[in-house]
Structures are given as structure tokens and as C-alpha cells.
Amino acid sequence: MQSPNTPARDPGQLGPPTSDGVPEQHLTGSTVVEQATQADQSASGNDHIHLSSQTVNPEVTTSGHLGFNSFGDIYREVGDSLSDHDNRAAGTSRTDGATVGSTLATPSNGITELPPSTTTLETCLFVLQSIPTEDKGQALFAAHFDPHDAFVRPVAQRALDSLYATYGSYLGTVRDDAQLSELTRILCANTAKPFSENEADPEKWVAQFTGTNVRWETLGILYIYWELSSRNNHLVRPETKPPPPGGRVAAFRQRDVYRKCINDCQALARRATEVGNTLLLYVYWKRTIVASIVSGDTSLSCWMYNGEAVSLMTFLGLHVNSNKGIYKPTLASEIKRRLVYKIFVIDKVVSSITGRPPLLSRRYMLTPPPLDLKDEYLVADEETLARAVASLDSNGYNTDGAAYSITFWRARAQLMIIRDEIFEISLGVEGATSAETLYALKSRELQAAADMPVVLQFREADVRDPDVSTDMLYPRILMRLEHFQNLFFIERLLRRHGCANEKDLLAVSYDLTTTTMLFWTNMDGLAMVYEDFKWLVMAYAAPGGGILCLELLKPTVTLNEPNGITSANGESVTRSSIVQLLSLLVGFLNWVSPKEANGNICANCKVIVQRVLDQVLNVAPSRDGPLADFLEWDFSTHLDFKFDLLDTFEWTRPEFSWTDLPP
Questions:
Q1: Where in the sequence is the domain holding 557, given as residue range(s)?
Q2: What region, left, alpha or beta, does residue 401 occupy, with left being phi > 0 and alpha being psi -120 to 50 degrees?
Q3: Domain boundary among 244, 270, 294
Q4: Which of 127, 196, 229, 390 pairs with 287 at a CA distance of 20 to 30 A?
Q5: Region Disordered: which residues (predicted)?
Q6: Lowest mean per-residue pLDDT among 391-400, 478-487, 566-575
């Protein structure tokens, strides 16, 4: 509830309505947080609250990570060659991590506090007014299931608990402007403090942003959990009891407020630091996920947020944290590794959908993958963590057969490394890539799938097994899809080189589509990942369905012969099974509202598949026996199914004229 003394703030102009008729605000970044300058000190009339000046860890420079080919690396070598005597004689001292040309942030001219502008203060108060009360905040967090999470859940839980334990009196049903202004000052001062990225003690690392040290990044992380949980609050786990929503419209509006606060927290944190940190990187990355849900995977906001996450990660140098000697994992080091590889994975997923070049190449990834450790081990004592590390196998996976939150991401990253190689061939300059190179890539993909941890290997019986929960079923299906998609891309590359086995391409297209349909035919059991359905059908089923449509219209293989095509689960692929599968695909595509993100793409795909089915099934039988030649319709002049390798949705673009298709 908003205090009468708090200036009302419209969270922004709302975008087009969702399928429920409720407008959903698109992510465009915060525009209400002004960057602090020295001039603000005299320009602002808000003297009752101040922002602490920026202070940066003296071991961190505002130049960020400077690599091998930078000028700083050369002068670092010069510095290493200087003797300590020369340094003292010159009146200088060498600081590890500092480079020539870097600007160390220091207090300027004795100015210790900068007042915020009116709009910035208004933003701060809006964020604090929007924090849910403790019962609702805890319920939303407990109900949240996110396979795309990159944080350590026990740490997020501790941050949530400490927020209400420390400042619960500020965050009641009725909130006082004076108290929130005081909390704003605390948050701004804490956010400006140095953040020790390499703190080995988990308690000290967590203490930097919890309790009385709460930062804007902390609130940004919590708002991410609340926003994503509020999307599925009618599908929560049965063991949780969230407060009843005040109607669907109110719930959707609340979701928009949470999303606005994510952007505001990011902007406020960015205002207070010139170098960023791991916490801010997490917020940047999760904005990509939220933008894909709100605006669509092909949208500009999703693409740019992905770019910002990659940029901050490389600025911090997290991609080049290679082992020097024996690696001793800590909470801080493992969170950084997790973020690096999850950003790498999602970068490839976005490129798979859009056909745009990925922003981060595996060739620049020197940081080893995170270890397959349970979240609780990372916040445990040193001895417990050491035992867990010692129990891992030679590949870094746990040996107890468990599926931890990071197990899925480690295995997925291995497939994405291969996909990155596929992209180099398919999206780069066409060179002398031989068929042997592609067949070798295919063999590596098959081996990577075989080496996948058993706990992530999907079996057909999993769908009907009551002992296989959503937490387990979803990663297994998704890993199967990623494997099939890699094979799908490779088979299409082989076709480009004129050496494809059409049976293999058709089989993997069938497998890709069939596996995606499991989400549609088992929607109740997979309700916790409801929001993912809309991109899963577009990213995996639609491309495979396009190849199946083409096969119906212009057959390349004889499907009903004795030695025909067999799917991955042993099912014979026939014209009948393809028609039935495409009929299911039409239903799945139709389920996605045209008003939702990716809805226009799904709607266009549905129209095409429907017309293909109509053309194939409505052919009048010939008295001579064989069916009439439906290929008399020059389908290629209307729909170009021979799309470029990754330009999968060229045939669904809005500029395509649908009026010239035969009825």
C-alpha cells in the first residue's frame, strides 16, 4: 500500500495486451534514474537524503579486464621487469590488477556525498514501496521453480530472510516516507561500497549484500524471483500456500511492477558503480530471460540485453579465470563460473532461434566449467565442501547419481560448445569445410550425448512415471531437444554440401518435433514450466515441422518401404505418422495467442502447416490407383522451405504475402 505522502508514480506506458486482455509492459530499461555528477550537488533540491560517492576496490580499475593484446598487458610486463628498488626510487608502487591507463576511482575533492535528482529519489521510493510484504514475498519465493536460474538458491533465500529480518518494520502494509528515505540512503551507500569478488569465506561473501549491507543488486535479484514466480502463481507447488491473488488483472499488473523494479534496481546499481560486479551481472543476464518472455526471443530488447550481459561478463574478465595451480572452489568462484557458462549457453540458444551470430565464442572461454556441486555444499563449511569436491568424478560430475541445479547446465554447455562450432561453419564465410569435417562433428555430437550423465538421459517411460518430478523431467526433455537440434543443424549443413542422407535429416526432424510435442501432450505434468512452452514450440518444433511439411509436398525418400525410417524411440516414420504429428503441431501453435511474445511467428507457422495438410489430405483419389499429383502446385513459388541454415523462420516473416496462397 502506498503512503499518502509518497508521490504517485506510473510504472510506465503499457504495451499491447496479453492473451488475457491485460497489457504487459515491454522491457525497455529504466529511464528514470539519472547518473550522478558533481553538478547534481547544487542542482538538486532534495537535501534530506544523500547518495554516498562512488568508492571502488583499489584492486579493481575502471578500465576493466585488459587482455593480451591491450597496451596495458605490455606495460604490465615492463612493470614486472622493474626491480623493487627502481619502483621505490621512482616513488611508485606496483599494484596487482592495476594497469597503465586505468583510472582508479577515488573520492573527489573531499566530496563524500551526492544528492539524487528528483526522478532518482522517486524511483528509489517506488522500488521500496513495491517490495511485497513478508508473507507474500516468502510465498512467491518458495513457489518459484526456474530451471534457468543462475544463482545459488540458499544464498537468495538468506538475502530474502535478512531483508525482512533487518528492515521488516519498514516494509509493512503501511509504509512511511521518512523510513523509506532512510532505507534509500542505506541502499545507495552500500551499493557504492567495494564488492570483494574473490572473498573465499562464504559467510563473508554473502554478508557483503545482506542484512545491514543490503544493496540495490540484492533487491534486483529478489525482484527477479518475484516476477518470474508471479507468472505461474496459479501453478505453484502444492506444498506452498501463497496468498490468494486479487484477481487476474491485479496479478498481471503486479507482475509488470516487479519487472519495472528489476530495471530500476539495475539502473540504481549501475549508477553507483563504474565497474560492476557478479551480482549486477546476474541481474543483467536474467533481464535477457524476462525480455524473451515479454517481448519475444527475436526482439531487439532480448538481443540487446543478451549483449549487455556478455559485455559486462567480459569487462569483468570472468571468461578468462583459468586455473593456476590446484583449484580450490569457493562460493564466489563457483557462482562466477556458473554465470559464465549460463550466459554462454543462452547466447547460443538465442542465436539458434534468430540465426544471428553468437556474441561469445568458445575460443575465448578460458574459464573451466563449474563443478557439479549441490548448492548447499557451496555455503557449507570448508571441510564439507572439500569432501564434496573429492567425491566428483574425473569430468567434474557428482558420483551419487543426483541431478543438482548445475548438473543440467554443465551437460548443456558441452552441447553448446559443439553448436558454437556449427555456427562458425554455417554463419561464417563459406570456406573449404569438407564433408569429413561435418561427419567428424556429427560423431562428436553423438559421443557427447552418450557421455551425458545418466540422470539427464530421457526415457519414454519418464513421462508416465510418477516418481519423475517436473524438476527432473524438464531437464531431461530439454537435453534431448538440444542434442536433436545439433544433429538437425549438422544434417542441414551436409545437405548444403550435397552429401546429406535425406533419411537422417527426416528422422531427426521427426524426433525434434515429436520430443517437443511432449510438452503439449503432458501440459498438466509440466505446468511449472508453462512460460517456456511458447518458445519451445517455436525453437524446436517449428523448424522440424518445416522439414516434415516439405517431405509431404516433395518426397525425397520412400517412407513405407520395409527398410524405412525409424525414429529415436524405434517408431516407424510413415506419411500417416507425419500427418498426425503435424496435426498435433497445429494445435500447439494455435495454443499460443497471437498477442503474446512469439505469437505472430507461431500463428504464421500454423497457417503454413494447416495449408500443407489441406493440400496433402484433400487430394481426390485417382481411379487408376495412385493419388493425384499434388506437386502440380508449384509450392516453392509460394513458400520457400529451402531456407538458409539458421534462417528458420524466413517463411513466417510479416512481409510475406499470404493472399497469394491457394485456398
A1: 535-652
A2: left
A3: 294
A4: 196
A5: 1-25, 85-115
A6: 566-575
